[in-house]
Structure prediction request, 450 residues.
Amino acid sequence: MAARRLASRSAADGTPRTVEIVIDGRRVAAREGEPIAVALWAAGHVVLGRSAKYHRPRGPYCFQGRCDGCLMRVDGVPNVMTCRTPAREGTSVESQNAFPSAELDVFGIVDWFFPKGMDHHQMMTGNVALNRVMQGVARRMAGLGALPSEPHPVVPVHESAIDVLVVGGGVAGLAAATEAARAGASVRVVEEADDVGGEMSSFPGRVLDPDGGDAIDARALVDRLAREARAAGASIAPRTSAVAAYRENAGKSGVRELLVSDGERIERVRPSRVVIASGAHDGVATFEGNDLPGVVSAGAAARLLSHGVLPAERVVIAGDGVLARALAGALEQAGAKVAGAFDARVERASGRGRVKSVVLADGRRFACEALVVAAPPSPAFELAAQAGVSVRWCATRGAFVAAAGDDSTPTDAWAEATGAVTGVRTLPDLLPAARACGRRAADGARGATA
Ligand code: FES
Prediction:
């Protein structure tokens, strides 16, 4: 069996109510409130859709809302990220771009038919009539998903103002929010995930307590930081995304604001100062077959475990790092057979529909149901750049990073970045910088409103 629920985990956490969701007409048991993609993975549904052009199988890669592998039609709405959508009784889920199903898609023949790729711009251009037919077919096949069954209701737009808005409720965001609130600022944290903590919330092990020096469960550290932020007076809004930062009117005189949404309503927030603690996207690695369902990021495997789901019985972990090593131990403890390819590069992942085997560059070959890719994360600098924070290439990290604020940051800077988005990864470096950032934001907000 590829994946299974971990009984001990669910007993410890108090098992939520079991509900039924319906995928392509078939009933699947889910824990109420868990992400739909997690429920589907636990039930063996790893192929959730097909790619737009070649109809290659698609499945979740990140369980973090940062790839497109889990897009499905949910209750008549196309292209919903099912790793971010909670399972409810009777939720209807349909795979997209596939017939009759994502696992057995007859249009998958396109991929087989054009092994070297297809230049659809040049197809049948020699004959006007044939080209018209081709254009019509291409038009029908383009895009992903069909239009919604119903028009979307008009979403009310609200306006609000606050001293400091913190984007991202990971450990850096929580630490910055605490300090800003302790300095007297009104503070709100928006976090797109169900819960705060970022990648630390699902880290499968203990970390050194940056404030005490002892080893502490990663989740306990997150809980403590969240408690401190709330006690200081910061409000925390989970399942809420900051989707854009801009000036309301063109030109330097325009008011700066962020567009924030929890899916039900949209809010135009005008903060005096913004702290961008948007973290990092899970890393990807380049090798043949890296888009096969069953190939997941190390963060994704940790998130599945944190939901009480063993990603697979036979797992290959490719790549190294603290998370990769912690995952190997946690997966083995949960009963998986783990091959740690910590020092090797993946040459190829193979399988029909989902990963079945992995070949490493050194020639080793493993049979598996999941390949966990532990690649360096990529800072999520997009919103920081919109908010006016400078972004630079960091050769040592091989990634673009947002510039970290420090004491030389101009006091009138509207936005500052902190945490993993700046390329900082270790808690002893990350937390003091985040706390200083929070204090500067509170000072700046005070100056802006004086
Ligand atoms: S966006 Fe859902 S799995 Fe990546």
